[in-house]
Amino acid sequence: MSILAKHTKGKGGPDKIFRISGMAKARAAEVGKENITNATTGAFLDGNGHLITLKTVEETVKEIPFSEAAEYATIEGSPAFIEAAIEASFREYRPNAFIDGVATPGGTGGIHHALFNYLDDGDTAITMDRYWAAYKSICRETGRNFDTFVMFDAEGNFNVQGCIDKLREYAAKQTNVFLIMNTPANNPTGYNVKLNEWEAIMAELTAIANNGRNNVVLLMDIAYIDFAAPECRKVFQLFNNLPENFLVLVSFSMSKGYTMYGYRLGCLLCVSSNKQEVEDFIAVNKFSSRATWSNCSRLGMLVMEKINGDPVRKAAFRAEQEQLRLSLLKRAELFMKEAREIALPVCPFDSGFFVTVPTEKAEEVAAELRKSDLFVVPLGEGANAGLRIALCAIPEEKITGIPQKIKNALDAVGE
Ligand SMILES: Cc1ncc(COP(=O)(O)O)c(C=O)c1O
After folding, report:
1. 322-330 mean pLDDT
2. Atom 14 (ligand 1): residue with closest C-alpha?
3. Looking at the domain assignment, is residue 66 inside a domain?
Protein backbone atom coordinates (compact mmCIF):
# COMPACT_ATOMS: atom_id res chain seq x y z
CA MET A 1 0.00 0.00 0.00
CA SER A 2 1.37 3.44 -0.92
CA ILE A 3 2.33 5.88 1.79
CA LEU A 4 0.89 8.77 -0.23
CA ALA A 5 -2.03 10.67 1.31
CA LYS A 6 -5.49 9.67 0.02
CA HIS A 7 -6.11 12.97 -1.70
CA THR A 8 -3.19 12.33 -4.07
CA LYS A 9 -5.00 9.41 -5.72
CA GLY A 10 -5.17 9.91 -9.49
CA LYS A 11 -2.41 12.51 -9.59
CA GLY A 12 0.73 11.94 -11.64
CA GLY A 13 0.84 9.95 -14.85
CA PRO A 14 2.83 10.92 -17.90
CA ASP A 15 2.66 14.49 -19.19
CA LYS A 16 1.69 14.21 -22.84
CA ILE A 17 3.84 17.09 -24.06
CA PHE A 18 6.95 15.83 -22.28
CA ARG A 19 6.27 12.28 -23.45
CA ILE A 20 6.15 13.28 -27.11
CA SER A 21 9.02 15.73 -26.87
CA GLY A 22 10.96 12.85 -25.25
CA MET A 23 10.21 10.73 -28.32
CA ALA A 24 11.42 13.56 -30.57
CA LYS A 25 14.65 13.88 -28.61
CA ALA A 26 15.27 10.13 -28.72
CA ARG A 27 14.69 10.10 -32.48
CA ALA A 28 16.99 13.14 -32.94
CA ALA A 29 19.73 11.25 -31.09
CA GLU A 30 19.29 8.38 -33.57
CA VAL A 31 19.09 10.20 -36.89
CA GLY A 32 20.35 13.72 -36.14
CA LYS A 33 18.20 16.68 -35.06
CA GLU A 34 18.36 18.23 -38.54
CA ASN A 35 16.43 15.21 -39.85
CA ILE A 36 13.42 15.52 -37.58
CA THR A 37 10.89 18.28 -36.85
CA ASN A 38 10.13 18.74 -33.17
CA ALA A 39 7.02 20.94 -33.02
CA THR A 40 6.24 20.10 -29.39
CA THR A 41 8.19 22.65 -27.34
CA GLY A 42 6.45 25.77 -26.01
CA ALA A 43 9.50 28.03 -26.30
CA PHE A 44 10.65 30.33 -29.10
CA LEU A 45 13.67 28.60 -30.67
CA ASP A 46 16.00 29.51 -33.53
CA GLY A 47 16.93 27.30 -36.48
CA ASN A 48 19.47 25.41 -34.36
CA GLY A 49 16.95 24.65 -31.66
CA HIS A 50 18.44 27.23 -29.29
CA LEU A 51 16.30 29.52 -27.17
CA ILE A 52 15.88 32.98 -28.71
CA THR A 53 16.59 35.60 -26.06
CA LEU A 54 16.28 39.37 -25.92
CA LYS A 55 19.60 41.24 -25.85
CA THR A 56 18.21 44.17 -23.86
CA VAL A 57 17.09 41.73 -21.16
CA GLU A 58 20.40 39.84 -21.17
CA GLU A 59 22.39 43.08 -20.87
CA THR A 60 20.19 44.27 -18.03
CA VAL A 61 20.64 40.98 -16.17
CA LYS A 62 24.42 41.29 -16.53
CA GLU A 63 24.45 44.80 -15.05
CA ILE A 64 22.87 43.66 -11.79
CA PRO A 65 25.44 42.83 -9.07
CA PHE A 66 25.07 39.27 -7.82
CA SER A 67 24.87 40.36 -4.19
CA GLU A 68 21.84 42.53 -5.05
CA ALA A 69 20.08 39.83 -7.08
CA ALA A 70 20.79 37.09 -4.55
CA GLU A 71 18.98 38.82 -1.69
CA TYR A 72 15.43 37.85 -0.73
CA ALA A 73 12.73 39.87 -2.42
CA THR A 74 9.72 41.01 -0.41
CA ILE A 75 6.88 38.49 -0.58
CA GLU A 76 4.48 40.75 -2.46
CA GLY A 77 7.19 42.12 -4.79
CA SER A 78 8.76 45.58 -4.83
CA PRO A 79 6.44 48.53 -5.64
CA ALA A 80 8.61 49.43 -8.66
CA PHE A 81 8.26 45.87 -9.98
CA ILE A 82 4.48 45.87 -9.49
CA GLU A 83 4.27 49.21 -11.32
CA ALA A 84 6.44 47.80 -14.13
CA ALA A 85 4.16 44.74 -14.42
CA ILE A 86 1.06 46.99 -14.56
CA GLU A 87 2.71 49.12 -17.24
CA ALA A 88 3.88 46.09 -19.27
CA SER A 89 0.43 44.53 -19.13
CA PHE A 90 -1.80 47.51 -19.88
CA ARG A 91 0.48 50.13 -21.52
CA GLU A 92 -1.72 53.06 -22.62
CA TYR A 93 -4.92 51.09 -21.97
CA ARG A 94 -4.61 50.98 -18.17
CA PRO A 95 -8.15 50.65 -16.79
CA ASN A 96 -9.68 53.40 -14.72
CA ALA A 97 -9.81 51.40 -11.48
CA PHE A 98 -7.86 50.55 -8.34
CA ILE A 99 -5.01 48.30 -9.47
CA ASP A 100 -2.35 46.45 -7.52
CA GLY A 101 -0.51 43.17 -7.79
CA VAL A 102 1.51 40.45 -6.08
CA ALA A 103 4.62 38.80 -7.44
CA THR A 104 4.21 35.17 -8.50
CA PRO A 105 6.58 32.53 -9.86
CA GLY A 106 5.56 32.93 -13.51
CA GLY A 107 2.00 33.17 -14.74
CA THR A 108 1.41 29.70 -13.29
CA GLY A 109 1.69 31.02 -9.74
CA GLY A 110 -0.88 33.75 -10.43
CA ILE A 111 -3.33 31.25 -11.87
CA HIS A 112 -2.86 29.09 -8.79
CA HIS A 113 -3.59 31.92 -6.36
CA ALA A 114 -6.58 33.16 -8.37
CA LEU A 115 -8.23 29.74 -8.45
CA PHE A 116 -7.41 29.01 -4.83
CA ASN A 117 -8.48 32.32 -3.31
CA TYR A 118 -11.55 33.18 -5.37
CA LEU A 119 -13.32 29.81 -5.50
CA ASP A 120 -14.62 27.64 -2.68
CA ASP A 121 -13.84 23.94 -2.38
CA GLY A 122 -15.81 22.07 -5.03
CA ASP A 123 -16.65 25.22 -7.04
CA THR A 124 -16.02 25.24 -10.78
CA ALA A 125 -13.83 27.42 -13.00
CA ILE A 126 -14.93 27.90 -16.62
CA THR A 127 -12.83 28.25 -19.76
CA MET A 128 -12.89 27.34 -23.44
CA ASP A 129 -12.50 23.72 -24.51
CA ARG A 130 -9.16 24.36 -26.17
CA TYR A 131 -7.10 25.29 -23.15
CA TRP A 132 -3.71 25.04 -21.45
CA ALA A 133 -3.73 21.74 -19.55
CA ALA A 134 -2.22 23.25 -16.38
CA TYR A 135 -5.57 24.96 -15.57
CA LYS A 136 -7.14 21.57 -15.00
CA SER A 137 -4.14 20.36 -12.98
CA ILE A 138 -4.27 23.44 -10.74
CA CYS A 139 -8.00 22.90 -10.20
CA ARG A 140 -7.28 19.28 -9.29
CA GLU A 141 -4.49 20.34 -6.96
CA THR A 142 -6.65 22.91 -5.17
CA GLY A 143 -9.91 20.96 -4.99
CA ARG A 144 -11.73 23.02 -7.59
CA ASN A 145 -13.69 21.66 -10.58
CA PHE A 146 -13.19 22.63 -14.15
CA ASP A 147 -15.68 22.98 -17.00
CA THR A 148 -15.45 24.22 -20.58
CA PHE A 149 -17.55 25.65 -23.36
CA VAL A 150 -16.97 24.87 -27.05
CA MET A 151 -14.49 27.52 -28.26
CA PHE A 152 -15.55 27.88 -31.92
CA ASP A 153 -19.01 27.54 -33.46
CA ALA A 154 -19.77 25.66 -36.68
CA GLU A 155 -18.77 28.71 -38.77
CA GLY A 156 -15.41 28.91 -36.99
CA ASN A 157 -16.31 32.02 -34.99
CA PHE A 158 -15.56 32.42 -31.30
CA ASN A 159 -18.53 30.87 -29.52
CA VAL A 160 -19.72 33.85 -27.47
CA GLN A 161 -23.15 32.30 -26.91
CA GLY A 162 -21.59 29.06 -25.62
CA CYS A 163 -19.56 31.11 -23.17
CA ILE A 164 -22.64 33.04 -22.02
CA ASP A 165 -24.67 29.83 -21.57
CA LYS A 166 -21.92 28.30 -19.44
CA LEU A 167 -21.67 31.45 -17.31
CA ARG A 168 -25.44 31.36 -16.70
CA GLU A 169 -25.29 27.67 -15.82
CA TYR A 170 -22.77 28.30 -13.05
CA ALA A 171 -24.39 31.54 -11.92
CA ALA A 172 -27.30 29.32 -10.88
CA LYS A 173 -25.04 26.89 -9.02
CA GLN A 174 -22.37 28.88 -7.12
CA THR A 175 -21.84 32.39 -5.80
CA ASN A 176 -18.58 33.29 -7.53
CA VAL A 177 -18.72 32.88 -11.30
CA PHE A 178 -15.12 32.35 -12.40
CA LEU A 179 -14.10 32.65 -16.05
CA ILE A 180 -10.55 32.07 -17.34
CA MET A 181 -9.78 33.79 -20.66
CA ASN A 182 -6.43 32.94 -22.21
CA THR A 183 -6.24 35.61 -24.88
CA PRO A 184 -4.64 37.14 -26.89
CA ALA A 185 -2.50 34.51 -28.60
CA ASN A 186 -4.37 31.65 -26.99
CA ASN A 187 -2.53 28.43 -26.25
CA PRO A 188 -3.13 26.14 -28.20
CA THR A 189 -4.97 27.91 -31.06
CA GLY A 190 -3.36 31.35 -31.43
CA TYR A 191 -6.81 32.99 -31.33
CA ASN A 192 -7.30 36.57 -30.10
CA VAL A 193 -10.78 37.19 -28.75
CA LYS A 194 -12.02 40.25 -30.69
CA LEU A 195 -13.26 43.48 -29.13
CA ASN A 196 -16.91 42.94 -30.13
CA GLU A 197 -16.78 39.41 -28.68
CA TRP A 198 -15.29 40.80 -25.48
CA GLU A 199 -18.04 43.42 -25.29
CA ALA A 200 -20.72 40.74 -25.42
CA ILE A 201 -18.97 38.63 -22.76
CA MET A 202 -18.43 41.67 -20.52
CA ALA A 203 -22.10 42.63 -20.87
CA GLU A 204 -23.12 39.18 -19.63
CA LEU A 205 -20.56 39.16 -16.81
CA THR A 206 -21.77 42.61 -15.73
CA ALA A 207 -25.39 41.45 -15.80
CA ILE A 208 -24.46 38.49 -13.60
CA ALA A 209 -22.60 40.77 -11.20
CA ASN A 210 -25.67 43.00 -11.00
CA ASN A 211 -28.22 40.21 -10.42
CA GLY A 212 -28.05 40.47 -6.62
CA ARG A 213 -26.88 36.86 -6.14
CA ASN A 214 -23.46 36.41 -7.75
CA ASN A 215 -19.96 37.83 -7.79
CA VAL A 216 -17.84 37.69 -10.92
CA VAL A 217 -14.15 36.88 -11.23
CA LEU A 218 -12.56 37.20 -14.65
CA LEU A 219 -9.02 35.80 -14.82
CA MET A 220 -7.14 36.94 -17.90
CA ASP A 221 -4.13 34.83 -18.70
CA ILE A 222 -1.94 37.11 -20.81
CA ALA A 223 1.18 34.89 -20.91
CA TYR A 224 1.58 35.51 -24.68
CA ILE A 225 0.38 39.12 -24.93
CA ASP A 226 3.66 40.46 -26.30
CA PHE A 227 3.30 38.17 -29.31
CA ALA A 228 -0.01 39.79 -30.28
CA ALA A 229 -0.34 43.27 -31.80
CA PRO A 230 0.10 45.90 -29.03
CA GLU A 231 -3.41 47.31 -29.73
CA CYS A 232 -4.96 44.05 -28.49
CA ARG A 233 -4.68 45.76 -25.10
CA LYS A 234 -7.73 47.90 -25.99
CA VAL A 235 -9.80 45.26 -24.23
CA PHE A 236 -8.47 46.54 -20.89
CA GLN A 237 -10.51 49.69 -21.40
CA LEU A 238 -13.60 47.51 -20.89
CA PHE A 239 -12.52 47.16 -17.26
CA ASN A 240 -13.25 50.83 -16.42
CA ASN A 241 -15.78 51.40 -13.64
CA LEU A 242 -16.88 47.79 -13.13
CA PRO A 243 -19.49 46.85 -10.53
CA GLU A 244 -17.80 46.48 -7.13
CA ASN A 245 -18.45 42.73 -7.02
CA PHE A 246 -16.82 42.17 -10.45
CA LEU A 247 -13.12 41.49 -9.99
CA VAL A 248 -10.66 41.29 -12.86
CA LEU A 249 -7.42 39.39 -12.26
CA VAL A 250 -4.67 39.54 -14.85
CA SER A 251 -1.89 36.99 -14.79
CA PHE A 252 1.24 38.59 -16.24
CA SER A 253 4.32 36.48 -17.03
CA MET A 254 7.94 37.34 -17.82
CA SER A 255 8.55 33.89 -19.33
CA LYS A 256 7.75 34.48 -22.99
CA GLY A 257 7.63 38.26 -23.41
CA TYR A 258 10.94 38.85 -21.63
CA THR A 259 12.45 35.45 -22.63
CA MET A 260 13.06 34.74 -18.94
CA TYR A 261 11.23 31.40 -18.82
CA GLY A 262 13.52 29.77 -16.24
CA TYR A 263 13.81 32.77 -13.93
CA ARG A 264 10.20 32.19 -12.83
CA LEU A 265 8.60 35.58 -12.36
CA GLY A 266 5.14 36.90 -13.01
CA CYS A 267 2.62 39.11 -11.32
CA LEU A 268 -1.04 38.58 -10.49
CA LEU A 269 -2.75 41.94 -11.00
CA CYS A 270 -6.07 42.86 -9.45
CA VAL A 271 -8.39 45.44 -11.07
CA SER A 272 -11.40 46.64 -9.10
CA SER A 273 -13.54 49.70 -8.56
CA ASN A 274 -13.55 48.86 -4.84
CA LYS A 275 -10.39 49.87 -2.97
CA GLN A 276 -11.14 47.48 -0.10
CA GLU A 277 -11.36 44.54 -2.54
CA VAL A 278 -7.84 45.33 -3.76
CA GLU A 279 -6.53 45.60 -0.20
CA ASP A 280 -8.09 42.23 0.62
CA PHE A 281 -6.56 40.79 -2.55
CA ILE A 282 -3.08 41.84 -1.43
CA ALA A 283 -3.48 40.58 2.14
CA VAL A 284 -4.84 37.17 1.15
CA ASN A 285 -2.52 36.51 -1.78
CA LYS A 286 0.52 37.61 0.19
CA PHE A 287 -0.49 35.09 2.85
CA SER A 288 -0.87 32.37 0.20
CA SER A 289 2.56 33.19 -1.21
CA ARG A 290 4.09 32.88 2.27
CA ALA A 291 2.35 29.55 2.65
CA THR A 292 3.55 28.15 -0.72
CA TRP A 293 6.65 29.54 -2.46
CA SER A 294 7.29 32.49 -0.13
CA ASN A 295 9.02 35.07 -2.29
CA CYS A 296 9.93 35.17 -5.98
CA SER A 297 12.94 35.99 -8.16
CA ARG A 298 14.54 39.26 -7.07
CA LEU A 299 16.66 39.27 -10.20
CA GLY A 300 13.52 39.19 -12.35
CA MET A 301 12.07 42.09 -10.39
CA LEU A 302 15.24 44.16 -10.78
CA VAL A 303 15.23 43.51 -14.54
CA MET A 304 11.67 44.78 -14.86
CA GLU A 305 12.37 47.78 -12.66
CA LYS A 306 15.43 48.77 -14.68
CA ILE A 307 13.72 48.41 -18.05
CA ASN A 308 10.61 50.27 -16.97
CA GLY A 309 12.59 53.01 -15.22
CA ASP A 310 14.81 53.95 -18.15
CA PRO A 311 12.99 55.35 -21.21
CA VAL A 312 15.89 54.65 -23.59
CA ARG A 313 16.28 51.06 -22.45
CA LYS A 314 12.52 50.59 -22.50
CA ALA A 315 12.22 51.83 -26.08
CA ALA A 316 15.05 49.50 -27.18
CA PHE A 317 13.42 46.60 -25.33
CA ARG A 318 10.01 47.21 -26.89
CA ALA A 319 11.55 47.49 -30.37
CA GLU A 320 13.30 44.17 -29.85
CA GLN A 321 10.12 42.56 -28.54
CA GLU A 322 8.28 43.78 -31.62
CA GLN A 323 10.92 42.22 -33.90
CA LEU A 324 10.47 38.95 -32.09
CA ARG A 325 6.72 39.10 -32.52
CA LEU A 326 6.98 39.80 -36.24
CA SER A 327 9.50 37.02 -36.83
CA LEU A 328 7.18 34.53 -35.11
CA LEU A 329 4.25 35.82 -37.14
CA LYS A 330 6.17 35.12 -40.36
CA ARG A 331 6.34 31.45 -39.42
CA ALA A 332 2.62 31.36 -38.81
CA GLU A 333 1.79 33.20 -42.04
CA LEU A 334 3.77 30.64 -43.99
CA PHE A 335 1.96 27.77 -42.29
CA MET A 336 -1.48 29.35 -42.76
CA LYS A 337 -0.83 30.15 -46.43
CA GLU A 338 0.12 26.57 -47.22
CA ALA A 339 -2.80 25.27 -45.17
CA ARG A 340 -5.23 27.51 -47.09
CA GLU A 341 -3.84 26.37 -50.45
CA ILE A 342 -4.63 22.73 -49.69
CA ALA A 343 -7.79 23.44 -47.63
CA LEU A 344 -6.34 21.97 -44.44
CA PRO A 345 -8.69 22.89 -41.58
CA VAL A 346 -6.94 25.01 -38.93
CA CYS A 347 -8.51 26.69 -35.88
CA PRO A 348 -8.79 30.48 -36.38
CA PHE A 349 -5.31 31.92 -35.76
CA ASP A 350 -4.19 35.49 -35.04
CA SER A 351 -0.91 35.34 -33.16
CA GLY A 352 1.21 33.37 -30.75
CA PHE A 353 3.33 30.28 -30.36
CA PHE A 354 0.95 27.58 -31.63
CA VAL A 355 -1.59 26.62 -34.27
CA THR A 356 -4.16 23.85 -33.88
CA VAL A 357 -5.44 21.49 -36.54
CA PRO A 358 -8.77 20.11 -35.32
CA THR A 359 -9.20 16.35 -35.71
CA GLU A 360 -11.11 13.83 -33.61
CA LYS A 361 -8.37 11.30 -34.34
CA ALA A 362 -5.58 13.45 -32.93
CA GLU A 363 -3.68 10.56 -31.30
CA GLU A 364 -3.74 8.49 -34.48
CA VAL A 365 -2.77 11.38 -36.75
CA ALA A 366 0.09 12.37 -34.43
CA ALA A 367 1.33 8.76 -34.49
CA GLU A 368 1.09 8.73 -38.30
CA LEU A 369 3.11 11.98 -38.47
CA ARG A 370 5.81 10.52 -36.26
CA LYS A 371 6.44 7.94 -38.99
CA SER A 372 7.78 10.82 -41.09
CA ASP A 373 9.66 12.28 -38.11
CA LEU A 374 7.25 15.17 -37.50
CA PHE A 375 6.43 15.45 -33.79
CA VAL A 376 3.30 17.38 -32.73
CA VAL A 377 1.12 17.20 -29.62
CA PRO A 378 -2.35 15.60 -29.79
CA LEU A 379 -4.65 17.44 -27.39
CA GLY A 380 -8.21 17.10 -26.14
CA GLU A 381 -10.81 14.46 -26.75
CA GLY A 382 -13.71 13.98 -29.16
CA ALA A 383 -15.00 17.13 -30.82
CA ASN A 384 -12.41 19.39 -29.16
CA ALA A 385 -9.41 17.21 -30.05
CA GLY A 386 -6.66 18.52 -32.28
CA LEU A 387 -2.98 18.65 -33.08
CA ARG A 388 -0.99 21.44 -31.48
CA ILE A 389 1.87 22.52 -33.70
CA ALA A 390 4.48 24.62 -31.91
CA LEU A 391 5.56 26.99 -34.68
CA CYS A 392 7.66 28.77 -32.06
CA ALA A 393 9.98 25.76 -32.00
CA ILE A 394 10.60 25.30 -35.75
CA PRO A 395 12.30 27.59 -38.26
CA GLU A 396 10.61 28.73 -41.48
CA GLU A 397 12.51 26.29 -43.69
CA LYS A 398 11.09 23.38 -41.71
CA ILE A 399 7.54 24.76 -41.80
CA THR A 400 7.31 24.48 -45.58
CA GLY A 401 5.47 21.25 -46.37
CA ILE A 402 4.10 20.60 -42.86
CA PRO A 403 0.46 21.36 -43.78
CA GLN A 404 0.71 18.84 -46.65
CA LYS A 405 2.22 16.22 -44.34
CA ILE A 406 -0.64 16.74 -41.90
CA LYS A 407 -3.21 16.49 -44.69
CA ASN A 408 -1.63 13.22 -45.85
CA ALA A 409 -1.69 11.87 -42.29
CA LEU A 410 -5.38 12.86 -41.90
CA ASP A 411 -6.15 11.03 -45.14
CA ALA A 412 -4.15 7.99 -44.02
CA VAL A 413 -6.22 7.60 -40.82
CA GLY A 414 -9.47 8.33 -42.64
CA GLU A 415 -10.26 11.77 -41.24
C1 LIG B 1 -1.52 29.59 -21.58
C2 LIG B 1 -0.39 29.71 -20.63
N3 LIG B 1 -0.58 30.42 -19.54
C4 LIG B 1 0.38 30.59 -18.63
C5 LIG B 1 1.61 30.01 -18.80
C6 LIG B 1 2.55 30.25 -17.68
O7 LIG B 1 3.85 30.20 -17.90
P8 LIG B 1 4.86 30.68 -16.77
O9 LIG B 1 4.45 30.06 -15.49
O10 LIG B 1 6.17 30.20 -17.24
O11 LIG B 1 4.76 32.16 -16.72
C12 LIG B 1 1.87 29.23 -19.95
C13 LIG B 1 3.15 28.56 -20.16
O14 LIG B 1 3.34 27.71 -20.97
C15 LIG B 1 0.83 29.08 -20.89
O16 LIG B 1 0.98 28.37 -21.99
Report:
1. 97
2. 42
3. no
